[in-house]
């Protein structure tokens, strides 16, 4: 998404897409601030969600009342030690201004989550950390909005909204498939555009 947005706005040529993930190419699987124009961060999304739950949040809360949202993957929350530490810290400091959305689409980058790490019962684990947990259908906009109304009323603990989703939902040829590193063919593109009309 970052690469598509940058190319669309002219930061680099769309021709760069044809060299994606090749050795020494500008566009690698994870962004690299040293090689991609105007990208100020390096790493996968799994490097972004958990730090926003870090210990510095309690200092921020003491300075100003602000609402913080974080987006996590299920596998990220299972594999990253810093995520567990951040989750415990957020609960310890009763950060009720923090809401995390966890996308539980049952896949990580190379395989099904269950083949890498047993996550269930995911909600119970977050409750054990001291979080208020809501589980929803992540494709249902009403449930998303309703869950935000619910957590807004919860005091003295951070909130997590576990969104059960289907990877590739809406495009039948993609649904339930792990296409994390797949290069989209012309046929797949045509199928997706047809489904999205």
What does it look like?
This protein is an alpha/beta fold and 197 residues long. It has 2 domains: 1-43, no CATH class; 45-164, Thiamin diphosphate (ThDP)-binding fold, Pyr/PP domains (Rossmann fold, 3-Layer(aba) Sandwich), CATH 3.40.50.970. Helices cover 35% and strands 13% of the residues. It contains 8 helices and 4 strands. The protein has helices at 2-8, 56-63, 74-79, 81-92, 113-116, 122-129, 141-152, 186-196; strands spanning 68-73, 98-104, 132-137, 159-164. It has a 4-stranded parallel β-sheet with strand order 1-2-4-3, sandwiched between helices. Helix 7 (141-152) links the parallel strand 3 (132-137) and strand 4. The chain is globular, with a radius of gyration of 19 Å. The mean pLDDT is 82.
What is the compact description of this entry?
The protein is an alpha/beta fold and 197 residues long.
Largest sheet: 4 strands, parallel
Give me the strand/helix succession: HHEHHEHHEHEH
Low-confidence segments, given as residue ranges, are none
The whole-angstrom Rg is 19 Å
Average pLDDT score? 82
Q: What's the total number of strands?
A: 4
What coarse outline follows from CA principal-axis ratios? globular
Summing up helix and strand content along with how strands pair, one would put the structural category as alpha/beta
- CATH topology annotation of the largest domain: Rossmann fold
Count, helices? 8
